[in-house]
Amino acid sequence: MFEALSDKLGGVFDRLRGRGALSEADVNEALREVRLALLDADVALPVVREFVAKVRERAVGTEVLDSVSPGQQVVKIVNDVMIEQLGGAGAVPLNLTAVPPVPILMVGLQGSGKTTTAGKLGLRLRERLRRKVLLASLDTQRPAAQLQLAQLAERAGVPSLPIVAGQTPVEIARRAMDTGRREGFDIVILDTAGRLSINQELMAEVTEIRAATNPVETLLVVDAMTGQDAVNTAKAFNEAVGVTGIVMTRMDGDARGGAALSMRAITGAPIKLTGISEKLDGLEDFHPERVAGRILGMGDIVGLVEKASETVDQEEAEKLARKMAKGQFDLEDYAKQLKQITKMGSLSGILGMLPGVGKIKAQLEDANLDTSILKRQGAIISSMTPKERRAPDIIKASRKKRIASGSGTSVQEVNRLLKQFDDMSTMMKRMNKLGQKGLMRHGLSAIMPKGMAPRNRPY
Questions:
Q1: pLDDT tens by residue, 320-346
Q2: Per-residue model confidence (pLDDT) at position 178
Q3: Cα-to-chain-centroid distance, residue 102
Q4: Helix (H, G, I), strand (E, B) or coil at 353
Q5: Pairing relation of β-strands 271-275 and 283-285?
Q6: Is pLDDT at 185 greater than 50 in this prediction?
Q7: 261: which strand partners?
Q8: Is the CB of residue 33 less than 8 Å from the CB of residue 5?
Q9: CA 103 to CA 99: how far, in whole Å?
Q10: Is residue 390 within 8 Å of 425, Cβ to Cβ?
């Protein structure tokens, strides 16, 4: 997400940083390029105009032109305006302060990921907030839609409203709220029907359901990949039913990102949640300052730390650290590490959270960094015997062939894994031997494998 926009803005800012003093003409020229980059990213024209005007107003003052590092100052102003455009600093939480059961109405077009998002939201509210949630499908249009939500509810570990044939969406909604009151549910998630496009029938149905249930939250689910169409959808739904929050799905896709930058300005409703994977736990809070940081190449270290804390087993990590300190790291430990990393998502997504990684994106892609590699390495280790995992030195030609055959990989891949593990083990043994003081005295070159240590080059 945002890769093309991030690359273009990065080029503009690199040129600004390269100059000493900045004239008003320099700022205007840079803003012209920013404007084109935003339009190319499918940001709505009125939003682009407002964005550029705000940046120009702040950037052409003495604060920038007389600054010690004017280029950096312009980047900061663009970052501040982008955060405002995305909704201001900090995530906007769901409003759940009402007498239970709290109704949450899910609306959107067909194919936007609305039903899947309802399942994800059910899981999130149950696990994170310990709420008792009921899922109810009001979709009588799409075949098996109610069954799909029932299956998602089962996977999420939350109850779903029993299906009664022949009821209208409004009747189902009333039954869901009645069930919620009688059975002591905290929250009732109402998944409405979608259409392939906005029409009067759809809006009339959603309006009627809204009047019958009086939802505390009306969440519009839009697909980030649809760009400007997502903005038009948001505008239509907001005018018809009054949207309180937006959920953007497929934020991990190869989209241009304009919809996210346009939503708040067009609807006045904040983006509250984002869908970042197909998994049921792939729903995250939307943090404008973190998204702005990633667009401008500043990374999202806070998000990375949060992701790690949610997925890494602390006790397992501490046990592993103790083994590494003693130089007792084996392939079973390596396999556990691979599983922990895979839980965090795609490697390109993780690396995208690091500052400055955008500039070496091409090299990273050439290196073919992907969780599929980690899964293949995990399969290789799973095909080894416990003895082989603990003592990889015994793995010779015949064993390598057996392991490759059992894991559906090649002998070359087995060799590559063993070489990587051997390099890691060598580094750990050297670290253990040197100790903290020795490492500080000799630096990283003392533990790097032969041929990898940095050399002093003549200039």
A1: 666 666 666 778 777 777 776 666 555
A2: 95
A3: 27
A4: coil
A5: antiparallel
A6: yes
A7: none
A8: no
A9: 10
A10: no
